[in-house]
Amino acid sequence: RAPTHTVLSVFVTCLGHVLKSITAVNTAEFQASTVDVVAVTKCNLIRAFAALPESSYQPYHNALLKWSASELTKGVTTSLFRKTLREDSDGVLGPWSQDEQRKEEKLVLSPPVVLQDAGIVWSKEPLKQLTSAFPPTVKVVDALMALFPKLFASKSAKVQKSVLDHFQNCAKMSSAQQLHKLSIQQNVLCALLIMLKDRRPSSPFPDSPFLASVQQYFQSFLYHEHPGLRRGAGEALAYLCNTQGDQFTGSLIASITTLLRTSNEISTKVGCAFLLGAIFRCVGGMRAQTHLPAAVSVLHNLAQEPSSSCHVWALHALWLLIETCGLAFADFASPTLSLAHSLLLNKTHNSIGGYNCLGRIVNACIATLGPELDASGDTFKRCRAVHHYLMANTSPVVQLETIHFMQMLTLFAPQTVDAQQMLPFLRSFLSSPHTSLRAAALQCLRQLVQLAPREVGGDSFEEELIEMLDDERDARLRTELELLLTTLVDYRAPDAPSLWLQLLKRVISASTRATTAGAASKDGTEQEPEEDEEDMSGALTTGNAPDDDAEGVFIPRWRTRVFCMRCISRLLSVVEDNPAHFDLAIARQKRDTSHEAQDYLVFHLQELVSIAFSGATSVINALRPVGLSVLQQIVERFAASEDPDYEGHRLLEIYSAQIAAALRPAFDADATPSLTATACEVAVSFITRNITTEEGALSKVMHLLTDCIAELQTKRYPAYSEQAATLVQLAILDALAQLHVAALEGQVPASLPPIMEPFLGTLLSHWVALLRDYSILITQPPAVQHAYKAHFFTSTTVDNVIGYYRTSWLHPLSAAASLVGSEQWNAPRKETKRAAYLAMEKEAAGDEDSEYEEEPAQASREDDFFVMLGLCFKEIVEADAETTIACLGALSKMLTADMLALPAFEYSNEMLMELSGMMVLQCQIGTAPVAAVAERTLASILANLPLDYFSLEGKINAEALSSAAFYPLVEAAVIPLHRVIEHAREHSSSGPSPALCALVEVAAEALRAAAMLPRVWTPHLRTIYGPSLLQVLLWTLQANMPPLNELVCAALVKASANVVQAPAPSADSVGEWDRVLLCALKTVCAQCHALSPASSAMLCAIGPLACGCSPGGVDSSLLSRGRQLLANAMTSDDPTIAANARTAALALLSSALQPDTRDRAAPIARFFFVQLGASLVALLSPAACMQREVESTLVYAKMIIIGHSLCPAEQRETMLSLVLPLFLALLHEAIPSGVSSFALDLVQRLASSENEHFRAVIARTDAQLKALLESALKAQQQKKQAEAAQNRPRVVKKTSRKQMSLSINVDQYT
Description:
Elements: H1 5-23, H2 32-51, H3 61-72, H4 81-84, H5 87-90, H6 100-108, H7 126-130, H8 136-154, H9 157-173, H10 178-198, H11 209-222, H12 227-244, H13 246-262, H14 266-283, H15 292-303, H16 308-325, H17 333-345, H18 352-369, H19 378-391, H20 396-412, H21 419-427, H22 435-451, H23 461-471, H24 475-492, H25 497-508, H26 529-532, H27 558-574, H28 584-593, H29 605-616, H30 623-638, H31 656-663, H32 673-688, H33 695-706, H34 724-744, H35 753-756, H36 760-779, H37 782-787, H38 802-806, H39 810-818, H40 823-826, E1 830-831, H41 835-845, E2 855-856, H42 861-878, H43 881-895, H44 907-921, H45 931-944, E3 951-952, E4 955-956, H46 958-962, H47 966-986, H48 994-1010, H49 1019-1039, H50 1042-1059, H51 1070-1087, H52 1102-1108, H53 1116-1130, H54 1135-1151, H55 1158-1179, H56 1182-1186, H57 1190-1206, H58 1212-1225, H59 1233-1249, H60 1251-1259, H61 1263-1286, H62 1297-1309
Antiparallel strand pairs: 1-2, 3-4
């Protein structure tokens, strides 16, 4: 956690006081020990300042800079200078010791112990330097390399130039002392190089005197006789080019190429050549590609110089160009290879460094040319000629490049590889004393096996590799050997598995090594002191040659046996795709019908089980878990194999006793944790795979697991790490969870579940505790994890147990989910203190026999439920398909449990639970691997979703809208219906299948959810999801699924009414919009041809679908068909059909009056009203009104008025002459009062709105109808007068203007 500003200021103030005190100390008269103490204090002070932000100690910048400059010029050389340079690629350039033999040792060999100083190899007395660490004064300068670059970069250009001038003056003043001068130069160059490396390319130095000064400073070292300073200056100038940009780079390259052509000084040519290569390497081949031809030309000429050092530096720079430019160098590859060939023939260029660079150049050219390299072409012949010449050289450096040459051919030009010629050459290096040669040969052999597996092997090659693995001390080489052997198993073992099985068996079952070679101890370690003295850094070291024992018999170490056992496991995995290896009947059939010899593992099953059993019961503890894992693989892969010689029996049945015998020792008290954990997995496979029908053997294995439950929480392994107990506890719980789930699915014999039944309550608590621990580990920050009192780990092991939990949580989740709502779930529970903390408290109390009282659980079962639910949601979103399916299954079990048996959940909690499941499922339900499980889970969620969730007292629930819960509902409604249609089309001829019935169940729940969607859709959502939902509903309707038809009709009506309320589509999508709606309208009309009370609800979709189309986009014949359907339905004798028709017609006509649909709906409504008007006139006759309920008559009257308002102005009088007599006839006293009063109100509105036309029409009206109007008006007036007389006078209160305005607005709204 970052310190606060106040705390940081206190730190800086304290450090400032220390700085002031330490700079005032004069150590000239101190003793050596005191000087070391002061140096250590300085070192710690520098590291403290370097760890703080630069801005926090800005007041001390000047003091620190001055002090750092004085420390760098005291003559103490930093040990980081050579580390700052690129030793991996530029080490061939030196600096060298004088001895020629030391040059080869520097390139190939390293000291047996590697310390901090990589420059030991340049020392004339490396062994003496290895025995002493760096003095404190050197550590002070090394620490300054982290602080000084930051201080220097934060200063202005003027200050930077003055500091640089100060360093130059100090170097000049110490010219008499060359070592002191060299120390200053190395320190300053190292610090500046670190600063340039850390500087971003987007932050160039401004064009100032400092830039020119620092460039000149670096160039002064470019021509220095010391190779290290020369390389450092070249690297610094290259980083400066990367910082300053292309213009600076171009000018510098141009200047050095000119200098290379004109200068005759060897030091100048060498420095410029290296700078050219360093610039290309730093800025990249793309940025420097324009300078490539000139650079190649100059370096080609320079490489032909007779000077040994000159041509080595030039060849190295040329290699850097090839590595950087890659394919861009292809045009120059042929002349470069010709140059390399000519240089090899020249006797003046026969240095080891030159041969090394030539080998690198040839290998880089092969990587550049790649597949274009023709085996019969001149370019490849030149490469081969150079390679043959270098093969004759005995120098390990050159031999290393010859191996790399073959490796490049294998990787980039496989068409030129001859494996039979390469194999003997590479095998000759396996016994080399040089680590680098052995490692390169192993890598090339592994790639050769992948390229030509049939040509690599035989002639005791595999035995040689295993013996080499057994004797190798270098950890990196052992890894390479294991990779090579594993690759051989992958590529060669499937063709001859029995040969590999025999080889690995000989190694595993070999006698224990003689005492002189080291005896194997029971814990899996051998008493071989030399085996611990290995180079773990991966550096180049000299290993010991293979040694044989006195009798010449190969007796492997325990690690070799373990690796061979893993190879057997690998062999089983490699051949798993061929069923003949695991089925005896198939293997015999192929062997009898094939003309070639066939080798299958099933023929060697007895030998395979014997090897695994011997490993599982070995005295070497490290071998036992691997042997058990091989036994598990055997059980998993051969479990389903029937014995063709004994019908009704499995192949593994005769080995079941042997397997069970291997499991029993794994559960002993002295068994190792890894062995017990592996045995739990084998026990699960042994029981669930049903390899034997003997229930006694199965029950014994089951008891091995259940007997561990009582002492599960107190299980400890003091001799091992603290997390060993966690490993075993989780393995046991995972195994029992798998068995419980398998018992529920009927995968175990009926006699086994009663064995576990008494322990289910305890196991449920343990499983939920495991899930709680896992949820803390994957969701909470480290501070919470360490403070949490876990059940199966402690605060000291929290960082190491997450891997155990990741492999053990899934099955306990499924097992606990299956018990939700069960007797064990609802039973009152007590929970003992956490096992880890219980043990700690016992140790603190000093009494291991003391007992602690049980404390009540802090969490309820409701909390447990939501912990499990949260894990399901998290893993469904983040995990792979297999985990997702398991989580969906657990989620389905939890949601389909008897909710009444659960604790009393809050209603909002239930809704949040189910909606969260919907939101998670939207990401997974459409994918193939999880579709089946997701659909079942979706059905359970939709079935539990209340239909009134989106409604609260008639209003939309704002909380539900804010949670955006309708998104998953849209997906839930569309996707299952679409799958129903696809399944129905694919299996239309075979009739309904169980899968289709399950899909129909899901779709039914989805349709119920779809019926709620229109209440919460926004216009934007209607535009996006509306057509898709509409199309799927129509497809479902056309599929004619009787269980779904009624639900489809209801959902279709609601969806249609809301889809058309969306904003008008864009011009690009109008055609698609009309096509969908017209298709829907056509389908609805076809379905309504033979109406029934159930399907008549679809009549309500005719109007919205017709009005949703663009103007002119509807076929008139289709509209006429829909209009006729409505007219016929309104006169139907069935009251349900007539009511649905009235509702549909009224909704259609009313849509023409809505502002958002008026423009599109008005023409359609007028078209429909032309024919509906005649039916309405007949339906509004007095005789018909007296026989019908009032509500129906009022609906027809409303439709008449709406139709009148839709008429054009020139037709209003004609329409009024038809409508007015109808309403006047309804004023008869025989008509129900509700209808007559409504008719009088309509007449009065017409008189006020159509005054002129009303007068003209009333004048032409029959006298009897006029008399009815006059009588109705008189009766209405008399009624009002009587009501006015009965009412008391009301007191009028004075109100403010604001209150009056508010009242008026409310009245208008009402």
